[in-house]
Amino acid sequence: MENILVAGANGTTGKKIVNLLKKSQYFNPIAMVRKEEQIPFFEAKNVETVLADLKDNVDGAFNKSIDKVVFAAGSGGKDVVNVDQEGAKKLVDASIKNNVKKFVMLSSLGADKPEEANQLQDYLKAKHNADEYLKSKDLNYSIVRPGSLTNEPAANKIELKQHLDKHGEISRNDVAQTLVSVLNDDTANRETFEIIKGETLIGEALHKLSS
To answer: Which CATH number do you get for residue 21?
Structure first.
């Protein structure tokens, strides 16, 4: 069992990631939360938690032995520089210091060229900077860039390309499943790719990317 630190565990997508990890036979989720009152939710599900704030020192998140990290945190547009950008960088640095084997970054479609976006430019710029920082480090990673998130049921099917030439939607459930799938050692190593809803099974789409 590998210990997976989930940053942003208390978010809508984060909770889905934690649930999938909890059901897995390979991974043990450790929910990173920033408020004490968020802990009982996870304790009730028998999920370990660590208290750490991305705006502050994140070293405490690694008090337990962490094998891999999923960054699914976000400020909801309220503080994109300190959370979405600098918070991600801090967690990358701490992951390197603690010999983490893989860092999975939840990014966004459009983060490759934020200057071309009609809206959310500040957010996409922050995501771009965080992604580029991760790519520049000696740390194995997968950067996943989904389209607009919906609360639709899981379809377990996606369209995946390194560069999609269109925008589109995808359910949080399918994003969470993709993020958990790329935690596998042989999947999407040092890869950046974009996903929207599609017709290819998630596992198959990732296999094509990795082969």
So the answer is: 3.40.50.720
